[in-house]
Amino acid sequence: MTDTQTAMALLPHALPTCPNARVALFAMRRMGAYGLADAQAAHLLFSAFGQGFRRPLVLLRALMADLASASSGTIAIAPCCCARMTSAESAMLTILARVETAPEVARYLMADLLGIRRIDGVLTSAAAVAMAFADEGRPVIV
């Protein structure tokens, strides 16, 4: 297998075209790699949301903590500079985009992502993040 084939297997999804989904992805990558209090993630959300940045930031931190504590395994995230996404990242963005309009799809994706059956708490956190983005005029669309 060549390096390109290996990269495509590990990062099978293109980055989202929605700028709001890109903001969520970058913040998730930063928090996943450098911790919930990462300054660059906070700065990105401040830049994107202006004075209304606190709610999306706090809720995204809570979601990341819930994902880490509830998951039965590891959740693969790519480095921030990657121009492609892992399957787990794609699933997370799809969950954020569908949690209000197609809750059963979001439920199945979350259960698959976490490898557990009882995902109500984490799904609620995802719904809160999606609502925070939408309430500030930045809905996640994939």
Helices and strands in order:
Blueprint: H1 3-10, E1 13-14, H2 19-34, H3 39-49, H4 54-70, E2 84-85, H5 87-98, H6 103-114, H7 120-135
Antiparallel strand pairs: 1-2
Helix pairs in contact: 2-3, 4-7, 5-6
Pfam families: DUF6628 (PF20333)
InterPro entries: DUF6628 (IPR046736)
Report the major sheet.
Answer: 2 strands, antiparallel
What structural class is derived from the secondary structure elements? mainly alpha
Query: Helix share of residues?
Result: 55-70%
Helical stretch tally: 7
Which radius of gyration do the C-alpha atoms yield?
Answer: 14 Å
**What number is the mean pLDDT?**
95
Keywords:
globular, mainly alpha, 3% strand, two-stranded antiparallel ribbon, 142 residues
Overview of the structural elements:
Pfam families: DUF6628 (PF20333). The chain is an all-alpha fold and 142 residues long. It has one domain. The chain is 65% helix and 3% strand. The chain has a two-stranded antiparallel sheet. Helix 2 runs antiparallel to helix 3, helix 4 (54-70) runs antiparallel to helix 7 (120-135) and helix 5 runs antiparallel to helix 6 (103-114). The radius of gyration is 14 Å and the shape is globular. The mean pLDDT is 95.
